[in-house]
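re: the backbone from monday

yeah here it is again, tokenized this time
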């Protein structure tokens, strides 16, 4: 089996390549240096030359606030780029695994979202990722759509890294406590994604580490485990106005994983522990 992973210079793509290599699967990781998602001809030429059996599509425009100022660029990469890639996958009879986000949901209430629940993104990034999903659903039969949230991994910036950096200069931090979701360690997720592309259990999935928390709880747990003496004061989102609205409820139901015979990911506190160890070792 031959797998192409987009977004290798990002958090998730990097770990997907590492996981597939570990399994002895032939894999190639690509970034915008190899082809841009906004360049259909370059993408087609690359794909026709490599001819993968599966694509794990991690690459995306991920600057959520900036997307409010340049929604066309975000849409061109996340929606149109995904549509082009899906068309090529269809022509090459190649499986496609598209990474999506909790941001496709309206993010209200307290219930866990099931994969088929009503979509209504509250920002431009979320809309572009939803349009990417729609393209995959429309064009492909051999697809996986995997919605994830609150990502952290060794190869990039993320909330935990930011908290550790702030701990160097702060004894007290205010962090929002009215957005609830599940952190996702890319190293854990990569194991599941590799299992998926090696299977033919196509469909729509949610995948995050187990358990839910607020950003304030994630910060406090990070400091506790890292042995940092930083006091976390919980505040509402209104104390931190951002250009893009964030969903308050990012609870994703993962029952779909068990139903398909996939294993759920470990608890988020355990993932944080292993991530801090990984940072230390690097
Ligand atoms: N981060 C989160 O909290 C989060 C939450 C939910 C879902 N997701 C989704 O999870 C996936 C992985 O996220 P991540 O945090 O690993 O992303 P990331 O670290 O921001 O990396 C983004 C990747 O996309 C590539 N890329 C950007 N624009 C491109 C273009 N025009 N053509 C080709 N490649 C391009 C980048 O390559 P270059 O280095 O070449 O620019 C980079 O490798 C994304 O699909 C994202 O939407 C993320």
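seq for it, each position gets an aa:
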């Amino acid at each position: 089996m031959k797998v192409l992973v987009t977004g290798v210079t990002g958090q998730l793509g990097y770990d997907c390549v590492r996981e597939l290599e570990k399994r002895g699967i032939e894999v190639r990781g690509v970034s915008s240096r190899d082809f841009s998602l906004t360049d259909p001809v370059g993408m087609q030429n690359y794909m026709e030359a490599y001819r993968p059996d599966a694509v794990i599509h991690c690459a995306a425009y991920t600057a959520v606030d900036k997307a409010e100022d340049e929604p066309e660029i975000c849409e061109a990469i996340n929606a149109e780029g995904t549509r082009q890639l899906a068309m090529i996958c269809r022509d090459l009879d190649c499986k496609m695994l598209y990474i999506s986000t909790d941001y496709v949901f309206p993010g209200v209430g307290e219930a866990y979202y099931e994969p088929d629940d009503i979509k209504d993104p509250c920002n431009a990034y979320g809309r572009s990722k939803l349009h990417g999903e729609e393209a995959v659903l429309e064009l492909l039969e051999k697809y996986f759509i995997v919605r994830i949230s609150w990502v952290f991994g060794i190869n990039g910036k993320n909330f935990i890294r930011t908290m550790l950096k702030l701990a160097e200069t702060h004894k007290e931090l205010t962090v929002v406590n009215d957005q609830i979701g599940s952190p996702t360690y890319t190293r854990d997720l990569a194991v599941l994604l590799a299992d998926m592309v090696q299977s033919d259990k196509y469909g729509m999935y949610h995948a995050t580490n187990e358990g839910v928390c607020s950003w304030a709880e994630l910060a406090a747990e990070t400091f506790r485990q890292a042995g940092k003496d930083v006091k976390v004061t919980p505040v509402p989102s209104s104390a931190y106005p951002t250009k893009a609205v964030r969903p308050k409820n990012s609870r994703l139901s993962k029952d779909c994983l068990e139903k398909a015979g996939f294993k759920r990911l470990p608890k988020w506190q355990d993932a944080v522990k292993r991530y801090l160890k990984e940072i230390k070792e690097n």
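Residues 6-13, 31-33, 36-38, 58-62, 77, 99, 101, 129, 148-151, 156 surround NAP (CB under 6 Å). The CA atoms of residues 149 and 166 lie 22 Å apart.
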